[in-house]
Amino acid sequence: MEHLQLKIKKITNETSSSKSFFIEEINNKQIEYKAGQFLTLLVNLHGKEVRRSYSISSTPGVDEVIYFTIKRIENGELSRYLFDDLKVGDMLTSLPPSGRFTIDRPESKLAVFISAGSGITPVFSLVKHLLYQFADTDILLIYQNHDEKESIFRQELLLLQQKFKERFTVKEIFSQPLDHSRPSQRLNNNLLERILLQTITASSVHFYLCGPEAFMRMAQFTLKVMHYGQEIIKRENFFATAPPPPFMTDTTPRNVIINYHNKKYNLEVAYPHNILEVALKNKIHLPYSCRGGRCSTCTSRCTSGSVKMTINDVLTPKDLQNGLILTCVSYPETDVELTFDM
What we know:
3 domains, five-stranded parallel sheet, Ubiquitin-like (UB roll)
């Protein structure tokens, strides 16, 4: 996967702890991306390569310049560096845009986004995509923040609600609102259920979740209790840790054939090592980011044989039927052949 060389064109402060970085490819390459995708930055920090994914907030066909947004995390080594040190004119290396938190065409009359904090970044891109490209789709955004000043893209969202008032509703929830006439609330099971019962009248609906892990678990549990099926719920994970390997009784080394960039590689992969891990050790530079089975950067298609995945928080049942796997959490159960040339 060829890396992108990006130049920072402009930086805007979204809140006291978040910034948007407007970029261009220095070799005049067109950066092709879908609303809801992310960039995986490759940064040399203290002598080692650090990879982190940041959601693209712009929307193709709507925004002229591509930009991504970073929230400064107090204990986030890379986010602190990027937030504090990056300036206009600086260069960045990135993998091409990737991610499956996307909507090619709406599958329902109503799209409900449930988001908190910096989880709004891919959601903002998707909301604009639906508003400007699909006039028959209604949108409900339920957005949790600490207060009005820390609400990323708040003014833009309120302007969009005004512009598309027949189709777009924003439900703002603040735990410590600066406007004391507003209630102090946190989105929980009861409040989410009440909002959905009051606002959803469409029989056709899809849900999109993005925020802290506990927040999304709460939302997913509430939707399950309300009898919404898993197939209409999509989520985007920002944080992932490498899970332990799955329990496997047969630990026989397996032959793995990898088709990547028009080359064929043969590897022997043995438990407890996963396919991505062994490929990287053999200097096969496959794409990856989180290494925790939650971002989809390492997705490939298994064209023969079978693998066991430790975790899957991103591939849909349809993806799995089409043979897609996450190499960072995949352990071959048989000899397998994979392709990245999809």
